[in-house]
Amino acid sequence: MFLLEKMRCERYNLVVAHVNYKKRDNSDYDEKLVRNYCQKYSLPYEVYQFKGSEYHSISNFQDRARQIRYDFFQKLADKYQTKYLAVAHHLNDHLETYLLQRERKSLVEYWGLPAKTKQGNYWIIRPLLSLNKQQICHLLTQNKINYALDITNQLPIYQRNIVRKKLDILSKEEKNLLEKEIKEKNQELRKVKKLTKIAAKQLIVSPLVLKLDKGNKYLPEVYLRLLYFWINQATNGILQKRKKKLLSEVYKQLFTSQKKNLIIELGNNFSIIKTGCQALISS
Known about the structure:
48% of the residues lie in helices and 16% in strands. By secondary structure, the protein is an alpha+beta fold.
């Protein structure tokens, strides 16, 4: 609600999108808040209501919810011919995302949440990353704007919620140090990405063939990112998520193992065949 009020007051041309997950008894109240606000200010709005059949049979509700949510946003972006989607991620979300990435030892495109991300045919923008949740709630109360809190965010039912509780007990100084750490890691990541592009030009002979060096010219993360790019390109995206454990094993077998000839199974009928100083992806 804070983002909506902020952008309306700044006179943006808005279409409001709300997703009702129907996972809480009071989720309809959230929808009502948005609808009443939009009607008050004559703003066009669209609502997507989850159906029980969309998530009852899945193991990871959050992943499924995100997929459906952004499919909905893509349809609205096409319908209203917009290139931008503004979302209300704030500083707490940024820190939580980083802690999750660090805990999972992810191979990421960005540490935490970027201010701007390309998604399909539009850009996701995050104007509230400089404000924490407490500041936003204070401003909402101060300006007498009705809002709702998702109580399930405090329940230890998702990994992010567990991380959120850990973040809540950190001091202001500790959170400031986390912000600084994120900035430093993103600076380092930009350097790694540049090196990865250089390595790709040197080592990717063709879409299916990779030249192997001794594996000590670049940092291991450069090789991991190179392998991720090469494998996905050759297999039409077999690694939809960054499976760092698999990539680490492939890196060891190709670049540090003394074995000259071996086969690495990737799944989905794809494999990597190592012969001497090159590797070939076969299906």
